């Protein structure tokens, strides 16, 4: 599957999608999250992290640009890096923080506001686009690589359940 579309009627549905995504992700994936302010990028990431076993808070890493989490994916320890690049001013910030090393086979990188990093970021395996509707959200997930396709093929999500 290269393309998946669904709607999320309320925040509970966003949480449910995060839970379903946590079950189909693989270490090494790079996931871009697109959507306006308040679209639900952090809400979706939070749901993925909680479903993957993280028990504490998940705050938007607005000023630190990134936050690491140790979770379990398919029963194995895995790191998820949650980026929010909204306030990134220069490429130097990203490079000096050593963020490029986080893009490796053992880590899932989830990136809010990838647009702010221009060509600095490795390409996305999955692009997730969230649109704000009058009621709820529309979500589109696009797989750009074989790894992304493999993950998306394993997504089982039943909205409104
Ligand atoms: N499916 C949904 N329907 C309606 N509201 C939702 C849905 N999912 C999440 N929300 C709400 O939308 C808001 C999303 O906020 P969130 O911080 O996740 O957005 P964001 O995309 O990360 O924004 P930013 O770009 O500022 O980081 C929250 O108030 C949440 O309750
Ligand atoms: Mg956010």
Automatic annotation (TrEMBL):
Alphabetized UniProt keyword annotations: ATP-binding, Cytoplasm, Magnesium, Metal-binding, Nucleotide-binding, tRNA processing
GO biological process: tRNA threonylcarbamoyladenosine modification
A single Gene Ontology CC term: cytoplasm
Gene3D superfamilies named among the record's database cross-references: P-loop containing nucleotide triphosphate hydrolases
Record's keyword annotation contains Cell inner membrane: no
Superkingdom of the source species: Bacteria
Location of the protein in the cell: Cytoplasm
Molecular functions per Gene Ontology: ATP binding; metal ion binding
Entry annotated with the keyword Thylakoid: no
Main localization, broad class: cytoplasm
Family indicated by similarity: Belongs to the TsaE family.
Stated name of the protein: tRNA threonylcarbamoyladenosine biosynthesis protein TsaE
Name of the gene: tsaE
């Amino acid at each position: 599957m290269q393309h998946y579309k669904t709607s999320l009627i309320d925040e509970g549905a966003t949480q449910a999608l995060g839970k379903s995504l946590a079950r189909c992700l693989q270490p090494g994936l790079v996931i871009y999250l697109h959507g306006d302010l308040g679209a639900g990028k952090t809400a979706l990431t939070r749901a993925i992290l909680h479903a993957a076993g993280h028990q504490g808070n998940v705050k938007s890493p607005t000023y630190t640009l990134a936050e690491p989490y140790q979770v379990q994916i398919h029963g194995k320890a895995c790191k998820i890096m949650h980026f929010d690049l909204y306030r990134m001013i220069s490429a130097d910030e990203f490079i000096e923080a050593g963020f490029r090393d986080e893009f490796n086979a053992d880590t899932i990188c989830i990136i809010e506001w990838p647009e702010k990093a221009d060509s600095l970021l490795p390409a996305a395996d999955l692009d997730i686009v969230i649109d704000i509707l009058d009621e709820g959200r529309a979500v589109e997930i696009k797989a750009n690589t074989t790894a992304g396709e493999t993950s998306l093929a394993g997504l089982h999500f039943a909205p409104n359940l």
